[in-house]
Design goal:
Blueprint lengths: L7 E5 L2 E7 L6 E5 L2 E4 L1 E2 L4 E7 L6 E6 L3 E3 L15 E2 L23 E4 L1 H4 L5 H5 L2 H7 L3 E4 L3 E2 L12 E5 L5 H14 L3 E6 L11 H4 L3 E7 L2 E4 L6 H19 L3 E4 L13 H12 L6 E4 L21 E3 L1 H12 L12 H10 L6 E3 L4 E3 L11 E4 L3 H5 L7 H18 L4 E5 L19 H15 L15 H6 L13 H16 L1 H4 L6 E6 L4 E7 L5 E7 L5 E5 L4 E8 L14 E4 L4 E5 L3 E7 L31
Parallel strand pairs: 10-11, 10-23, 11-14, 14-17, 17-18, 18-19, 19-22, 22-23
Antiparallel strand pairs: 1-2, 2-6, 3-4, 3-7, 5-6, 7-8, 7-9, 12-13, 15-16, 20-21, 24-25, 25-26, 26-31, 27-30, 28-29, 28-31
Length: about 650
């Protein structure tokens, strides 16, 4: 389906129809083919004109009040950058090959987050296609792209995007992004796109010249808040929601990841995210689509169904798991990590998702969050690394560099056996050595200076001095972040890759590890002895034990469980993964304590098929009124 965008340049039989919402403008014209043609004013700030003879591929711009030439605020393509003219795009001309693709359920997602510009040497959508077979062989099921909306220059994380409808020109533009999505679907990979609706980048941002896109009613870390509930906000809301629908319809995106929704301020009777989720689902008939939010609120209202007073978002990122693993294994206590560090908190992150569920947060100086214990596991995306945590929390250093091979391997076992949706950050699977830091390519020296100063001000408590953050404007900073694709086969890296492959394969083959059933998960742990045991179950009767030693020395861990024979499915100390020795192939439990001796920072995964039925009591999925249970993202409209 091609979205009938209400605004922007649309190819029609007569030519190209130009339609703009510009209530702050007195007169508006379009300049195309060397002519300046006036648009007709409509009601409520709308301007429109159909230009005969115009076609896809033509460049155009708008002239505001006869004086200022600006790109289209709903431009589908910006081949000359954020300040240049827009280009007419006809999305119907692309030949898709994914008619049979229906997407995946959230509990089938194993996510791989990547930054297009540093994922490959050339940093394009086309180049990313050449690495899809690596992801498929790894066992990944969903690729998450950091934001691709047109940003200034060629080096940026993407969160400075200003043309929300236009895929980044230096990455390859609209059709190359479509080709990447089409190729992903051919490989059985879902595509998640990171979109930013809490702010717009500072350079090339001309939206305020067209209408009341921003408000001073609220303050955000990025400047003026986007106006979704103040005077004139109806058009702004339409702009954002149309953008979300456009990615689903015109690019066949399977899920949207909404950046930092705690920076979207809306006190309307119907929150914009509730409206956005409903419209996204309505356009994706017959396939699984999802909306995933980044939120630091620890508030289950985000993922609660709208009919129970929530926003209706399908899932959210859960930083508490990352922080609990990171601090438990490394002892880091800088900045927000000071709220974490105990094995008990790691246990709670696995069973309840939110560690801070209404308890006092020393870092915040107040109580924080509410309980997510009743929410379904697939409503939480967890990770060991992501773009923010590598760049901001570690000054660009990877987990393998900070924690070492053994701890990294142990963390991978915890991630990929937890009852949530796991996410890897590009290169994590083979212990990539390249850093990942913040980078920009702004053209305004004053803006560059402000960015440098702002990062130190915002993240100073995570820095180790003024030189902790690399210069974001330097091209060398960006180049250093590119993945080294010679490493996956190198000594010390191939072993980590083998571990990740086998862990993912085990998760996908054993329902008790991949079912996201928090209600069938139990955790035993000891802060004093620094061990943790995760029990996973499944209605089929299959179960698993994940036994982890978090100490720097060998540990004797006592297991007590039902009468069952467990086979050793995977152990991090296997020589194939860079360990020292294999373990015994079976574990016999007879209701009495059995001692397992684990080397330092080691983990074992045991699986059985004969758990007694009584262990599955009260195993029904949570779904009562007021719980966080959501309907599947599958739209039941396959007519």
């Amino acid at each position: 389906m091609i979205a009938d965008l209400e605004l922007g340049a649309r190819v029609v039989p007569e030519g190209v129809r130009f339609r703009v919402w510009a209530p702050s403008v007195r007169e508006l014209a379009v300049t195309i083919h060397g002519e300046v043609l006036a648009l007709e004013a409509r009601d409520r700030g709308m301007f429109e004109r159909t230009v005969r003879g115009a076609k896809a591929g033509d460049d155009y711009a708008y002239v505001i009040d006869g004086a200022r030439e600006r790109p289209d605020p709903v431009s589908r393509s910006q081949p000359h950058g954020v300040h240049g003219p827009s280009r007419v795009v006809d999305p119907s001309t692309f030949s898709w090959h994914d008619a049979a693709w229906r997407g995946l359920r959230l509990d089938q997602y194993i996510i791989y987050e990547l930054h297009v510009g540093t994922f490959t040497e050339s940093g394009t959508f086309a180049a990313a296609i050449t690495k899809l077979r690596h992801l498929v062989d790894l066992g990944i099921t969903a690729v998450e792209l950091m934001p691709v909306a047109e940003f200034p220059g060629g080096r940026n994380w993407g969160y400075d995007g200003v043309h929300l409808f236009a895929p980044q020109s230096t990455y390859g533009g609209p059709d190359e992004l479509r080709a990447l999505v089409d190729a992903c679907h051919a490989e059985g990979l879902a595509v998640i796109l990171d979109v930013v609706y809490n702010h717009v980048g500072p350079e090339g941002n001309y939206l305020a010249e067209f209408g009341p896109f921003f408000t001073d009613r609220y303050r955000t870390p990025w400047g003026r808040a986007i106006n979704v509930d103040d005077v004139g906000s109806d058009g702004v809301r339409r702009h954002l929601i149309t953008n979300a629908v456009h990615w689903i319809a015109e690019y066949h995106i399977d899920a949207l990841r909404l950046d930092a929704i705690h920076g979207i301020f809306d006190f309307s009777a119907c929150h914009i995210l509730e409206e956005l989720c409903a419209e996204v689902r309505s356009v994706a008939t017959g396939r699984h689509v999802h909306v995933i939010a980044e939120s630091d609120l620890n508030d289950t209202r985000v993922i609660r169904p709208a009919e129970h007073g929530g926003l209706g978002v399908d899932a959210q990122w859960c930083d508490d798991f990352h922080h609990a693993v990171r601090t438990t294994l490394t002892g880091d206590r800088r900045g927000y990590f000071s709220d974490f560090g105990t094995v008990h908190q790691l246990s709670k992150a696995i069973t309840d998702s939110f560690v801070y569920d209404g308890v006092y947060s020393p870092h915040r100086g107040r109580r924080h969050g509410n309980s997510a214990a009743a929410c379904r596991g697939e409503q939480f995306v967890i990770c060991l690394q992501n773009h923010d945590q590598v760049a901001n929390g570690s000054q660009g250093r990877r987990l393998s560099d900070i924690a070492g091979h053994r701890r990294h391997a142990l963390a991978a076992v915890l991630l990929l056996t937890a009852p949530n949706v796991p996410m890897l950050f590009m290169g994590e699977e083979y212990a990539e050595r390249a850093p990942f830091v913040y980078f920009i390519s702004h053209s305004d020296p004053a803006l560059v200076s402000a960015v440098r100063a702002g990062r130190l001000l915002e993240l100073g408590d995570l820095a180790a001095g003024e030189l902790a953050f690399a210069d974001p404007q330097a091209e060398a900073t960006f180049e250093a972040c590119k993945l080294d694709w010679s490493l996956p086969g190198a000594l010390g890296h191939a072993e980590m890759l083998a571990l990740y492959r086998d862990l993912i394969a085990l998760r996908r083959s054993e329902a008790c590890l991949g079912n996201c059933r928090k209600d069938l998960t139990r955790v035993s742990a000891s802060d004093a002895e620094r061990w943790i045991i995760v029990e996973r179950g499944d209605p089929s009767g299959r179960g698993a034990l994940v036994v982890c030693n978090l100490r720097e020395s060998a540990n004797e861990i006592q297991c007590v469980g039902p009468t069952a024979t467990y086979r050793l499915a995977l152990t991090s100390e296997d020589p194939r993964y860079g360990g020292a020795s294999p373990a015994a192939p079976t574990l016999e439990l007879r209701g009495e304590p059995v001692t397992i001796v684990l080397p330092p920072h080691a983990a074992r995964v045991y699986v059985t098929s004969d758990l007694p039925p009584q262990r599955l009591r009260a195993a029904a999925r949570p779904g009562e009124a007021g719980a966080c249970d959501l309907e599947s993202g599958m739209v039941e409209a396959m007519r």
